[in-house]
Amino acid sequence: MTAPAPLLFTPLTLRNLTLPNRIVLSPMCMYSSQNGLANDFHLVHLGQYALSGTGLILAEATAVSPEGRISPEDLGLWDDAHTLPLGRIADFVHAYGGRLGVQLAHAGRKASTYAPGRGRGAVPPERGGWTVIGPVGNAFSDLYPQPRAMTVDDIHRVTADFAAAARRAEVANLDTIEIHAAHGYLLHQFLSPLANARTDEYGGVFDNRVRFLLEVVRAVRAAWPAHKPLFVRVSATDWATGGWDLEQTTELAARLRDEGVDVLDVSSGGLTTAQQLQVGPAYQTRFAEHIRAQVPGLHIMAVGLIETPELAESVLQSGQADLIALGRPLLGDPHWPWHAAQRLGVTPHLPQAYQRGTRVKD
């Protein structure tokens, strides 16, 4: 008898998409785009994860409208011109057996800010900055831009922008979409009472605060092929008194499942400078575990300081999550899946061109 394969290297099927393993490149801004266009950097950056056998590659937060960019250097899908370079990357990833998705995002009041290392806070108009929008007119902090409160027409326009970006993702032949509703960006701003002080149908009670996200999900699900899976990233808690919390996230998760969401990517924080994080190895997996237990039929992805193969495997084996998203570990070691396979007793996935390098070491 042979030992069962590690769960980390067990395939997972989501609708018609089968992932070869449970390792996911978490979407991370690379600040390397001009006018939202992907370029050779993105081809090499994302392509390397296909070569190393990463189960699913999620491209960075990609703006659905120009004012939705976090920084001027972010990727975009607000224009048809953005589809061709993303399609080129998808072709490369698919040629090497990979799966490629994109995180669709709108930064709201946290938009028009400098990329790390290029300045702090708001980018002024003379440096390419723009007017930002949010649920109300409150800025994230003194360093961030002052937003214009969104009208209902603005909300409907942004919803349509998400749907249009989803259609472009399909033209680019991407395999999945993740809607970004975490880390203090626009959709999260509407969810949290700490950022959403509206008095109309998009503010106040829980049903109103989740309305915008649910409308976006419906629009994207209608625009995105039924045979392809849909992810949503949420912050399970604001880590702040009176904010968005795990109980509300769990209720939202059930509604997202019923709207056709296949995977909930469970992160936390980012909404307020008053947050009091409790950080440690796999510190967010308790949120993932709770939601997975309470919302059957929804796959859960865990993320956050899951740095070793052994820890990733234990999260899966304990039933806390179905997928593991890795950010910094894969940035620091693009061949993390090769090393993880060896440490867990599995033959690494190696393209033909790399098979002479099977003596991979940690």
From TrEMBL:
Q: Which domain of life is it from?
A: Bacteria
Pfam annotation, one family:
Oxidored_FMN
User: What InterPro entries has UniProt attached to this entry?
Assistant: Aldolase_TIM, OxRdtase_FMN_N, YqjM-like
A single MF term (Gene Ontology): FMN binding
Signal peptide residues on this chain, from the entry's feature table: none
Q: Does the keyword Cell membrane apply?
A: no
Identify the cofactor(s).
Answer: FMN
**Ranges of residues in domain NADH:flavin oxidoreductase/NADH oxidase N-terminal:** 8-343
Family annotation (SUPFAM superfamilies):
FMN-linked oxidoreductases
Work out whether the entry's keyword set contains rRNA-binding: no
* Name listed for the protein in its UniProt record: Oxidoreductase
Give the species.
Deinococcus ficus
